[in-house]
Amino acid sequence: MTPSRRFLAHFYMALFVIYLMLPLVVMAGAAFNDSKLPTIVPWKGFTLDWFSALFADGRMWRAFLNSILVALAVVALAVPIGTAAAIVINAISGKWRATLYGFMVAPVLAPGLVIGISTVLFWNSLGNTVGSDFILFRPGLHLSTLGQVSFISAYVMLLVLARLQSFDPGLEEAALDLGASHAQVLRRILLPHLYPAMGASAAVAFFQSLENFNVTLFTRGGADTLTVYVFSKVRAGITPTINALAFLLICVTLVLALVYEMKRRRKARIEAERAAEARRAEAAML
């Protein structure tokens, strides 16, 4: 690469990083500004009062806890469903594969508003048909979970399906020829190959659920989630306590990213050392 192209590449990367990070910096800075409005202009002085107000806001923490619980439930349901769908789609061919793939991807293309209203109408109709007042048929966080799973599982399927493209089917055939059952092949050969994609899809599902608004707004019933609470605060007059919460979430995300990167580099270094040791042993034998 020529020096001019290298400079342009670095310049573009710098602009891209600034474009991504500048709104986060401004939002985080507003959490320390002694102003009743979530802004950094004008700067009225450094303060930590908004963090104190955040920790004293019981409703916000209840909404945040509800969002975490819904996100964990979505991960617990969406990852197995999406993984199973990816395995089935990868195993079949022809029109059935295209049909199943279309059914799984369709919720991603539908607006969240449609999914939220459809979820409420479906369960209400089912409750009226059965003639039961069971809580499952009423709006609540459980309906928010089911509504989100209907489209988040498609993201999981796409990630796992991409990972399956690098899987060698000959490994399954060899294991079956050696006497392994289909359950053993799934548990000891296929799933270990899919674990990285399943972990990534679990993270995607968690954050997709955490920031979901449209589906949750129509299915939550009387419960609050973080996105709905922030929406209600925006209508009534938002305060920098939201910025304080966002700053804490950014810090937690950065710490988790750093921990993951350190573990990845440590694992790569160990694998490189083992490969070098194996090469030295092979050279010594020769």
From TrEMBL:
<dbReference type="InterPro" id="IPR035906">
    <property type="entry name" value="MetI-like_sf"/>
</dbReference>
<feature type="transmembrane region" description="Helical">
    <location>
        <begin position="143"/>
        <end position="164"/>
    </location>
</feature>
<keyword id="KW-0813">Transport</keyword>
<dbReference type="InterPro" id="IPR051789">
    <property type="entry name" value="Bact_Polyamine_Transport"/>
</dbReference>
<dbReference type="Pfam" id="PF00528">
    <property type="entry name" value="BPD_transp_1"/>
</dbReference>
<feature type="transmembrane region" description="Helical">
    <location>
        <begin position="100"/>
        <end position="123"/>
    </location>
</feature>
<feature type="transmembrane region" description="Helical">
    <location>
        <begin position="185"/>
        <end position="207"/>
    </location>
</feature>
<feature type="transmembrane region" description="Helical">
    <location>
        <begin position="64"/>
        <end position="88"/>
    </location>
</feature>
<feature type="domain" description="ABC transmembrane type-1">
    <location>
        <begin position="64"/>
        <end position="260"/>
    </location>
</feature>
<keyword id="KW-1003">Cell membrane</keyword>
<feature type="transmembrane region" description="Helical">
    <location>
        <begin position="12"/>
        <end position="32"/>
    </location>
</feature>
<feature type="transmembrane region" description="Helical">
    <location>
        <begin position="241"/>
        <end position="260"/>
    </location>
</feature>
<comment type="similarity">
    <text>Belongs to the binding-protein-dependent transport system permease family. CysTW subfamily.</text>
</comment>
<dbReference type="InterPro" id="IPR000515">
    <property type="entry name" value="MetI-like"/>
</dbReference>
<keyword id="KW-1133">Transmembrane helix</keyword>
<protein>
    <submittedName>
        <fullName>ABC transporter permease</fullName>
    </submittedName>
</protein>
<keyword id="KW-0472">Membrane</keyword>
<keyword id="KW-0812">Transmembrane</keyword>
